[in-house]
Fold each of these.
Amino acid sequence: MHNAALAHHNLPYVYIPLPVSPADLGLTLAALPALGFRGVNLTIPHKQAAIPFLSALDPAAAAIGAVNTLVFEAATPDAPAQRVGYNTDWCGFAADLTALGVAVAGRPCLVLGAGGAARAVVYALLKERAIVRCFARRLEQAQTLASALAYVAGAPVLTAHAWSELPRWAGEAAVIINTTPLGMGAYVDQSPWPADLAWPSATLAYDLIYRPARTRFLAQAEAAGSRIANGRGMLLRQGALAWPLWLGTTPDLPVMAAALDAALSASEAG
Ligand code: NAP
């Protein structure tokens, strides 16, 4: 999607995949500015590990504890190269909720999972002044998330819960978000939603997974009459939000969306 938009805007850049082992991350990040890279996206397992190698960190990325977008400033005779870390996952998720017409202010939202992506989602929900309940199979992981992000809201609207507490809170939820990998890859036949728990029908189900397009979690929600959304919109928007940081401009979103959809269709077919 980046290359389609770069070509559309006639910009002299290319976006390429760089498989990098964890052991080589520091070395690679040191070398990329000198090689002419304007920036990179980072994915699993580098989103947290990259932070010690940065010269500066955006406050939202610092609060979330993960970066997915780096901007490089080349070295000058007076200053070494700069590597600045940002997180566009949180604003990509927030922008997608807005695009879906979903307002969460003052409404209970349940976040399933408490890993890196959950932190970005919770940060976005708190910024939108939602009431957030985070569920994890390891309660301490949800508690760590809650204590790291509680200050964002400035009010006790973020709580940590064990998975077994889902039945107690399910009925009140306005939005339920899956941030676990259950529904993709090796877990394609699984859902984080317990099979014996009725789905609250007036609820939006949002799954961060975008491949497959319709996870088991989304199928459960749809069968109960709920609105559903997968992670394709978040993926698209987090990418578009990197452009002002890298290039000082915004991409043509429909061009990016068409390229993304073509790639996702091809990968689902294959
Ligand atoms: P992560 O840091 O590994 O976190 C995964 C979370 O899911 C952890 O809380 C983990 O708990 C939990 N989990 C894993 N297996 C579970 C199970 N069987 N039952 C209950 N909980 C389980 O991964 P991440 O970076 O947050 O990514 C999570 C998902 O979000 C991935 O599917 C990724 O592709 C997606 N994502 C999508 C976008 C987008 O733009 N759409 C952006 C970022 C991420 P434990 O620590 O106990 O295993």
Amino acid sequence: MKDYTKIADHYLKRLYPITRSITGDGNRKTLRILKEIVPIEIKEYPSGQRVYDWTIPKEWNVRDAWIKNSRGMKIIDFKNSNLHLVGYSIPVHKQLDLKTIKKHLHYLESLPNAIPYRTSYYKEDWGFCLTYDDYHKYFDGSDSFEVFIDSDLKDGSLTVGEFLIPGKSDQEYLISTYICHPSLANDNLSGLILTTFLAKELIKKDLNHSYRIIWVPETIGAISYCANNEIAMKKIQAGFVITCIAGPGPYGYKESFDPKHPINKIIEQVFDENNIDLLKYPFDPHGSDERQYSSQGFRINMASITKDKYYEYAYYHTSLDDLDFVKAEYINESLNIYFKVIDKLDKNLVFANRIQNCEVMLGKYGLYSETGGGQLPNGDTLTELDMILWLLFCCDGVVSLFEIAERLKTDLGILYGVASMLEKEGILERIHV
Ligand code: ZN
């Protein structure tokens, strides 16, 4: 796989300043930029559409927002950081005293130099976020404040990106990432850039499965996508929510809801093979868009590989999750890991032995030594012949290659190679499940 470090750095810098939210032009602009990498199809779902228990909200766009003190000095300016404004703030222009404005200010005493990230999607409200240091500096009892928010909330649409990669089978895996966070680098600029590079690499491969790759606003976007693509989504067995993948901290993975699903074991194997320590976060119903995809109606096994997982790092949802925190080289490193995981997952096929009554006459296919009497089982080392015999014994159209590899304690990739050879000989046939 090519090295994506340089190009990741380019897109981190270009996309970081854009004001993204659950709707709005920032999301369209982000997807249009990502379209330079792969031809993402941009889709719009209208405000007001009922999507299961939810309704797609009005579209939010913001041009400017600030607070001035009584001397006319801008003490908070959205143009310096889009995190200053609470996401989905309604338009406001008024003069307020300290007591009133305080109800609309958010800061973190525990991280006094960080601007927190806050939103108010479903309650019409407004607010500003600032560092605790600035709060002390600029907000004292004697002053009055002019508040200005030039935003609008109108009927519009919610924007998603979709890219489908067909493989030999129409059985799909889902790769989903979220695009609704403004200037936060690990959560989730890292994820949406990595996902796009992953799409670009997957197109080059001769894939067995098909891949449905989507860029959606978290929660409402994932719900809207499920509601608008219900038939396809209900056929998906597994996939990834790509998030928080390029911090300086440790790698981790959030297990899918079924701990026995191959996706979990394959992730652990890849980290093991690459000698990288891995924290394991067992499934729980909190988290990201697996909350929708793994819900009862869909039950898709979704895993996430993370490097500084959401909730777990000190700078989470603050302005310190920035381009100093995230590194392009970590995006490249994590991309390689995802690529290896998907490579294995893609090779996890189900085959059936076409000759079920008694043994296959391997000599006929040049797969057995013509000199009889010399074949002995070779202890612990699996020869190619051992693998052939095991595959013919196990491949019943139900058991997967992953399960056979586990039983034989051998590498799925090598077993896949042998199974593919038997498929070419017409002995095994692929079962599309
Ligand atoms: Zn987040």
